[in-house]
Amino acid sequence: MEFSYKPTQAQLALRKLIRDKTRVLAYGGSRSGKTFELCRTIAVLAFRYGGRYAIFRRYYNAVRSSVFVDTFPKMMRMCFDGYSYEQNKSASEVYFPHNGAEIDFVGLDDDKRVEKILGREFAAIYFNECSEISFSSIEVATTRLAQRRFDANGKQLRNRLLFDCNPPGKSHWSYRLFVEGVHPVSRLRIPNANDYGVIQINPYDNAENLPEGYIDETLGSASERAKKRFLYGEFSDENENALWKSATMIDPFRINDAPDDLERIVIGVDPAITSSEASDHTGIVVCGSKTIDGKEHYFVLQDCSLIAPPEKWAARVVSTYENWSADLVVAEVNQGGDMVESVLRNVAPNLPIMKVRASRGKIIRAEPISTLYAQGRVHHVGYLEELENEMTSYTGDHSGEDSPDRMDALVWAMTELSTGGGSSTERGELFFG
User: How far apart are CA 244 and CA 391, in angstroms?
Assistant: First the structure.
């Protein structure tokens, strides 16, 4: 059935692992061929057994643009050129006319779509970029792995769960489940350990299919933290000197969905002035607050950080403000000064902006927020992987650490929610335009 596609040795090893195991994690660096091969696996199962399949990702826009529009059609052209299938672009579904098989592409942030999908049963489920997905979402989706399918010879399919990711920290549920072999919540040994398989696949394994210079220049010039994840494909250790610890301060208080009745929502912004590939990110983090049993609790809702020129990050801030019906934007102005307010005003003249200026070091500003985490009063909604990597690795050692732009944005938003601002020398004036 296959045509011109020549799999790499690492993809062949992944293929064999999937034949032998029913729960498989492929982790490793960027552009290593993981997603391509797992999309191919889902297509092969659909061809052979018919039935219904799902590809999940944390955000709908990501699964649609990255997998449904890009990787899956590319895989079909390279592996099964000319093979008949249909794409329902409005519903993000693939349909195979010869046997009625369906593949649903689902973002877990689309509540109506998720509700519809979870009313169905599936023969196999693939969690793309699973480091972004909470374990509670994995458990709920797994309950739908209940469809019985047989091939033309009467052989029954062993239903499968497939996962891939650029590896996060070792406190993440994927490391605990697949590498340590323990349940992420109970910490007990998993009873069906022989069903689990894990494989590391890195860009070097796929070098023949990558543009010249991508590995050595693009990935090789990244920060050490980024190279560890995107080039070497390694799970990272927590830094004992960092203010935040995933295992004791973030994971135990993580929730899957934000409360409906948040009292305040604030967007923290740590702007970058340049926008080249080597530039810092503009940190954009959404936080909310709510009183529970007489104590204020805080919710980290979304990380929208990006590398972009001022007009684009300003548009992202404004769209995020509107999407969340937020109350306030808190923006640091140490680097950009009045430019920060100006670019935001160009997009939304009446945006409520609190300008803040850092007069103390990052660690000193972050310590009160770290204390709130230690008290169990801060809840991350889902996995905010890149933000959490910054939080659990930053120590204030300026000689070897990247700028923690996401962490800074979080601290500004949380400071406003928890105290109404920082010290009088840091907090600026509130501007409504």
Answer: 6
Which residue type is seen at 204?
Y
224-231 own/partner pairs: CB under 8 Å, 24+ apart: 224/400, 225/389, 225/393, 225/401, 225/402, 226/402, 229/29, 229/166, 229/167, 229/168, 229/389, 230/29, 230/30, 230/166, 230/203, 231/29, 231/30, 231/202, 231/203
| Order of all β-strands in the sheet with 93-96 | 86-88, 93-96, 101-107, 52-57, 124-127, 160-165, 23-27, 196-200
CA distance 355 to 363: 20
What Cα–Cα distance (Å) separates residue 94 from each residue in 67, 91, 125, 142? 12, 9, 14, 21
Q: Could you give the CA distance from residue 432 to residue 166 in angstroms, rounded to a whole number?
A: 41
Q: What is the model's pTM?
A: 0.66
How do residues 360-396 score in pLDDT, each as one tens digit?
778 888 999 999 999 999 999 987 878 887 898 888 7
Tokens of 3: 């045509």
Rounded CA gap, 115 and 120, in Å? Answer: 9
Query: pLDDT tens digit string along 174-188?
Result: 999 999 999 987 778
Distance of alpha carbon 407 from the chain centroid: 16
Helix (H) or strand (E) holding 111: helix 111-117
281-295, 319-333, 414-428: lowest mean pLDDT where? 414-428
Helix axes 34-49, 72-79, angle to 10 degrees: 70
Cβ-based neighbours of 375, under 8 Å, separated by 6 or more: none
Taken in order of first residue, the domains within the chain and their CATH numbers are: 9-230 (3.40.50.300), 246-431 (3.30.420.240)
